[in-house]
Amino acid sequence: MGNKKGVLVLFSGPSGVGKDTVLDIVLNKDKNLQKSISLTTRGIRENEVDGKDYYFISSDKFEDMISKGQVLEYAKYGSNFYGTPKAPIDQWLGEGKTVILKIEVQGASKIKELYPDSVSMFVLPPSMEELENRLRSRGTESEDDIQRRLDIAKSEIENSVDYDYLVINDEIGIASDNVLNIVKTLNLTENNNE
Ligand code: 5GP
User: Fold this and answer.
1) Is the shortest distance between the CB of 82 and ligand 1 below 6 Å?
2) Are 36 and 156 in contact (CB under 8 A)?
3) How confident is the model at residue 17 (pLDDT cuts 50, 70, 90)?
4) Which of 8, 21, 42, 102 to mutate to test the pocket of ligand 1 (most atoms within 8 A of CB)?
């Protein structure tokens, strides 16, 4: 029990804001960070890899894992379920690692209750118009899905005041540097050096 516990970083932002791109840059530049891989019941996108972007699982398997207490938190987003597998998070934190969790707003507030020491960051778009442009240019969602994601984005952005840090993703290099600097400023990665 004498070991220093790791730190949990909650990373949220509306769909299409560029969270994954920011996160990829941050994870590439800071090898001490550990990204939690979520479970989802949604279909895999063309550019995604199972076991890297998500664990893509069936609704039956998702329910089974929930009933066995293997999911730390989960949320329904659109028509799909997303959840955080419990075991790896507890293991990494026990090893003193800094763990980043990409998570939507409801999930982040649940985790904040369970892990009050976690640090939360919210990525904002420069404007709603730009968010809509980004979602459309991604070309992965139907018109209905885009509208649903924009509606969810509005309420998520309203809730962003509850986050510890807000990062605007206007220029991707600046946004990722800001996230890296926050992590450094908090000295979060120190725990990982044996
Ligand atoms: P997407 O379908 O665009 O990959 O993700 C949709 C939303 O689900 C995003 O806001 C993302 O942050 C959220 N999400 C991803 N993984 C998890 C998770 O493990 N738990 C919760 N509650 N939300 C998640």
Assistant:
1) yes
2) no
3) very high
4) 102
Asked whether 156 lines ligand 1 (CB < 6 A), one says no
Cross-strand partners of 121: 11, 165
What is the chain's alpha carbon radius of gyration, rounded to the nearest angstrom? 16
Q: Which two tokens stand for residue 28?
A: 């590439």
Residue of 11, 46, 77 to test ligand 1 pocket, by largest number of atoms within 8 Å of CB: 77
Average pLDDT over residues 145-156: 93
The one-letter amino acid at 70: Q
In whole angstroms, how far apart are CA 175 and each of 6, 96, 124, 125?
Answer: 24, 26, 10, 10
pLDDT in tens, 25-64: 999 998 889 999 999 999 999 989 999 989 999 999 999 9
- Asked if residue 15 has pLDDT above 60, the reply is yes
User: For ligand 1, atom 2, which residue shows the shortest CA distance?
Assistant: 42
